[in-house]
From TrEMBL:
A zinc finger (TRAF-type) spans 340-396. The keyword Cytoplasm does not apply. This is RING-type domain-containing protein. Residues 171-190 are annotated as: Disordered. InterPro entries: Znf-RING_euk, Znf_RING, Znf_RING/FYVE/PHD, Znf_RING_CS, Znf_TRAF. Keywords: Metal-binding, Zinc, Zinc-finger. It comes from Mantoniella antarctica.
Length: 546
């Protein structure tokens, strides 16, 4: 809490550092009357005692409260007796001080630590040293010396004030990829809050006067896509532009016609394609010759590159290339020279034989007489109804007007006649129809009779066949009866013979199983074959024969 002297090495300059204040250095020596006797520093909010001595407001609190006397003259004075020292206050405000942006603080290691630099100072306390950066030696130093009362005001606007760049990193979005309803401004806000990955603040610090230059090149400054003219709505931090640019959908594309131009997409590309020299266009050149008989003449259908259209028309186009006819001096397209000579050339035309005043090409003459010539004699269109008028084509409308009544009468008669003939025709048709119906009916009944006769004869045949069939069946049954009887006889004869042969055989020993005897007759039963034999003295007989 003491006013220190700051001397600059190598010069005689001495400045006064108020250690009680935050980095305040006075340019001139401070008058002794403005230095507080208690703290030995320039007054801070001076208060004056009734005896006329002043102290800082804090020093009054600190010293006078304990002693109850003036620090300078020992006159009795209570703290309540001190009043604001306006005179000293005004003088204080007039003292010139350095702008704080001319001052620096630096760490010092030892007594000789303050080396180099534009200025030097006596050491501060705690190893921290305040020094003055003089203009001309340090371009970041403010050279202003202002009144103490204006110090704060000056520092707000001082262009050497340190300022931090507060631009934010903005990711930037394409119009297409932005969710609906979310505007660019909202995107910026979320970037500020760091919600979408961006959001860092630049933080670069420099003097106020250098800030515009920094902001012009700051990587966080918001910039538009360079292809905005092609419709890209991207807006984001300059640092993110290279990444966007590489994937920007609106970046110029090579012209699809292969003209080599790179053109922005969208309307610019459309405009380019409308004028691209490699684009294909139809020649569409009209015929050089006027052709009154052909209201919509063909045009050249050739498709050529736009850049070569002039060349095509000059050197190839049979429509655009034209020359004057030697006979009639009319401009004629190359494609129709022959046609012109034969059909349209004036030198090839002759006056109409009806003297209608028209020049007609020879080959067109018949068509002219049939369709166009005003002097050609034509028949009235009511001729088929009985009008025998014949007059020049140009006069026919007049005849049609004058003879309306006559033509109506002819029409009426024609109608009546047509009706009569219609009735006649109907009668003929009716009689024909009746004849045909009768013929059809006769044919039908005849066919029915034939069918019935055929049916009855078939039925007769069937009955005869049935009778024959029964006869054959009866005959066959008789035959079968005779054969059956003969077979039975033969079978019984053969059976008797066979049994006799079997009886003569000795029954096999292995087969004998049991035998019973009664009244001289022995009956043997064979287990395997199931036969029973009854042996008597007179004769052996098989029991199965009984
Ligand atoms: Zn004081
Ligand atoms: Zn300043
Ligand atoms: Zn910045
Ligand atoms: Zn873009
Ligand atoms: Zn092109
Ligand atoms: Zn052409
Ligand atoms: Zn001609
Ligand atoms: Zn007529």
């Amino acid at each position: 809490m003491v006013l220190r002297e700051l001397g600059i090495r190598g010069t005689d300059a001495v400045f006064f550092h108020s250690t009680k204040r935050d980095r305040v250095v006075f340019v001139d020596e401070v008058p002794p009357g403005l230095i507080c006797p208690v703290c030995d520093d320039v007054f801070v909010a001076p208060r004056i005692a009734p005896c006329g001595h002043s102290l800082c407001a804090t020093c009054v609190e600190k010293v006078n409260k304990q002693t109850g006397k003036c620090f300078s003259c020992s006159a009795s004075a209570n703290p309540e007796d001190f009043t604001e020292d306006n005179v000293s206050g005004v003088q204080l405000g007039d003292l010139r001080v350095f702008c704080r942006n001319a001052l620096g603080l630096r760490q010092v290691d030892d007594d000789d630590g303050s080396e180099g630099g534009a200025s030097a100072s006596k050491h501060g306390s705690g190893g921290l040293e305040l020094f003055i950066r003089l203009e001309g030696f340090d371009h970041t130093a403010c050279s202003a010396a202002v009144r103490l009362r204006e110090l704060d005001t000056h520092e707000v606007t001082c262009e050497f004030r340190s300022l931090m760049c507060d631009l934010c990193d903005e990711e930037g979005e394409d119009e297409e990829s932005r969710p609906p309803g979310k505007s660019a401004a909202q995107g910026g806000t979320s970037a500020l809050l760091g919600a979408d990955g961006g959001g860092g603040v630049c933080g670069f610090t420099c003097m106020t006067r250098d800030m515009p230059r920094h902001r012009a090149t700051c990587t966080m400054r918001v910039t538009n896509c360079p292809f905005a003219t092609s419709g890209c709505r991207w807006r984001g931090s300059a640092g993110r532009l290279p990444a966007h640019r590489a994937s920007c959908r609106k970046q110029p594309r090579r012209c699809p016609n292969g003209c080599g131009a790179y053109v922005g997409v969208g309307p610019m590309m459309m405009r380019h394609l409308d004028t691209c020299s490699m684009g294909e266009v139809a020649c569409d050149a009209p015929d050089a010759e006027e052709r009154p008989g052909d209201p919509d003449p063909l045009r050249c259908p050739a498709v050529v590159q736009r850049g070569r259209l002039a060349e095509h028309r000059r050197e190839q186009c049979p429509w655009a290339r034209a020359s004057k006819c030697r006979q009639c001096h009319v401009l004629v397209s190359q494609r129709s020279t022959g046609e012109h000579t034969s059909a349209r050339c004036a030198s090839n035309r002759e006056p109409c034989p009806n003297q209608c005043g028209t020049l007609v090409a020879t080959r067109e003459l018949q068509r002219h007489l049939n369709q166009d010539c005003d002097k050609a004699v034509v028949e009235c269109p009511y001729g088929p109804l009985g009008c025998g008028a014949r007059t020049e084509r140009s006069k026919m409308p007049g005849h049609l007007t004058h003879a309306t009544g006559q033509h109506l009468e002819l029409t009426r008669r024609g109608l009546v006649d047509a009706q009569r003939r219609g009735d006649e025709l109907r009668r003929v048709v009716d009689s024909h129809r009746r004849e045909m119906a009768a013929g059809v009916e006769a044919q039908r009944s005849e066919a029915a009779a034939t069918l019935a006769a055929k049916e009855s004869s078939i039925m007769q045949g069937v009955r005869e066949l049935c009778a024959h069939d029964a006869e054959v069946r009866a005959h066959a049954a008789g035959e079968v009866e005779v054969l059956t009887r003969a077979a039975d006889d033969q079978a019984s004869t053969l059976g008797g013979q066979a049994l006799d042969m079997i009886g003569a055989l000795q029954p096999p020993r292995t087969c004998a199983a049991s035998s019973t005897r009664s009244r001289g007759t022995r009956t043997v039963r064979y287990r395997r074959c199931g036969l029973r034999w009854r042996q008597t003295k007179a004769r052996r007989r098989c029991s199965s024969r009984r």
